[in-house]
Amino acid sequence: MRNLLLATAAVTLIAAPASAQSVSDAYGSIGYSSVRGDSADLGAVTARVGAKLTPYIGIEGEASLGVGDDDVVGIPGSTAELKHDLAAYVTGTIPVASNLELFGRLGYGTTKMTVESSTLSVSDSEESVTWGVGANYFIDGQNGVRADW
Question: Which phi-psi region, left, alpha or beta, contains residue 63 (left: φ > 0; alpha: ψ -120 to 50)?
Answer without folding.
Answer: beta
